Amino acid sequence: MHPTVIIGAGMAAYTLAREIRKHDKLRRLLIVSADGADAYSKPMLSNAFAMGKNAAQLVSHDAAQMAQQVDAEIVAHCRVSGIDRLAGTIATERGTLAYAQLVLAVGAEPIRLALAGQAAQAVLSINHLDDYARLRGELAAIDGAARIVILGAGLIGCEFAEDLSAAGHQLTLVDPNPYPLAALAAPALSRGLLAAWQGRPIAFEAGASALAVERDGEGGLLLSLSNGKCIGADIVLSAVGLRPALGLAHGAGLQTGRGILVDRFGRTSAPDIYALGDCAEYTVDAGGPPSAAPSAASTAVFNYVAPMMTAARAIAATLTGSPTAIELKAEAITVKTPGYKLALFPPPKGLAGNWVDEVDGERTVCRFFDAAGCLRGFGLSHHTLALRQQLLAGLNHGPQ
User: In this predicted structure, what is the pLDDT of residue 285?
Assistant: First the structure.
């Protein structure tokens, strides 16, 4: 009997393996990973400095420990180059491996800006443990506080800015929008975050994007911006976003959109191949459960832990003989900005409506109402679980 093969060894892969073991103790599991397959929490990468953690300290279990924990064979440092759907095999650096069922948990890749300049390749992106180790190494080589420029003031950019500034480094965020978190937060909350940064070593360069990165002749970097300014830096981080890793899916002829399209059970367009986590584009219905089949109007990519865990539980049940639909629930995004704690539920992109702001002491609550007066999004500072749940319960209803 061929094994169930999981490509990838991140949070999605290991969560799925644990869930499979809850249903089936005997099934053969094979996990193939291009990296060392050590288990760690990827969201911790953006607040590891505040926790005083180096890369090795973020690892909760190494590959050998995970193999024992989930009773699986783990093949680390082994790249997969292709999938043969007809033969039911994958091509790897260590030969051809057969599968009974295949799960793609290959994650997402950082979007690389088309920057000019001889130092463009020096720009870092923090998407894996090895990336974080490289950042720590570069910071260790700098005498004193580093000048760090972060390209992109979205969720990850803001979290890294808070984390690195707390360690004493000088941060500049560069973003084409007028406020940080512009795609997720109400303007009032973005302004609140900026106010919270006053007095801290965090500068915000609004309405600008990076054009080129050069060496400054003294071991540093010089960043040219679209607004004509030049900023000196020791390190430049890119946090402009992620895109699902689609190489294997494209090579196998699987249906893709922004991510690997999956149906309500997590299946791709090949019935014995599934996709999970940041690489998957889930089938959803606005305001309801997943629909029967993927379509451009009813799919979404979710780069968050909660949807991944929900999908992993459902896919594990399906793989072990109990077909279970992925029922994605509305969840607020909690932003790791300790100086101004935020919980956000952005409205659908492009939806007409308006924000209504309410200030209650130090807390700001923002509600987004559509043209019909229904609550379609929200955000709040200094949030509590009870208030988040209250707002989630009011979604798609009239003013509360």
Answer: 60
